[in-house]
Amino acid sequence: MTASPDVLATSLNAIKNSQARQRPVIMITYTADGPPRVCVPDIGELRVIDGRLLHVAIWPDSPTAADLDRGVPVLLIVPAAPDVHLIRATARRLTGAAMVWAHFDLTITSARIAARGTAPAPFTQPVRPSEGPDTSGEPDARGELLTSVRQKRLVRSLS
To answer: pTM for this one?
Structure first.
């Protein structure tokens, strides 16, 4: 686990406060063969269980649930003015859950506060050739910049 105890505690408090104040937390799954999938768990459906364990409930037929079942890494983006917390985790489905939701335990693998002007790793990948005009075989820097700008706008709108 890569996070200082202070950063981890602050990140967990940011999740608790976002739920109490009904502010969304963004959950992103990403694979090498597809675009990132964004999920915003309903208020109250993302809970802190202990110092490294979270519990989330999402719609069972969603692409995010399928990604979590395959063991895809999870990135949680938690706006907590003046900071934005980036929390990475691994998921494990809980069996026998009540109701129709798919329930997962998320084990935190790292937590950090985002530096200003940066984007999390899944957003810095170049645009795929099918998504933009890349005729040179080199990564398209315009697509990378555009994706970074979109991510910044999303984080600003949630703050």
So the answer is: 0.69
Q: CA 125, 79, 150: angle at the middle one, nearest 5?
A: 35
What is the identity of the amino acid at 6? D
List, for residues 106-151, the tens digit of each pLDDT value. Answer: 999 999 998 877 655 554 443 343 444 444 444 444 444 445 555 5
Residue for token pair 């768990």: 41
For domain 5-117, give its CATH number from 3.20.20.120, 3.30.2400.10, 3.40.50.300, 2.30.110.10.
2.30.110.10
**152 vs 4: CA distance, rounded Å:** 25
> How many other C-beta atoms lie within 10 A of the C-beta of residue 86?
20
User: Residue 76 phi/psi, 5° resolution?
Assistant: -105, 130
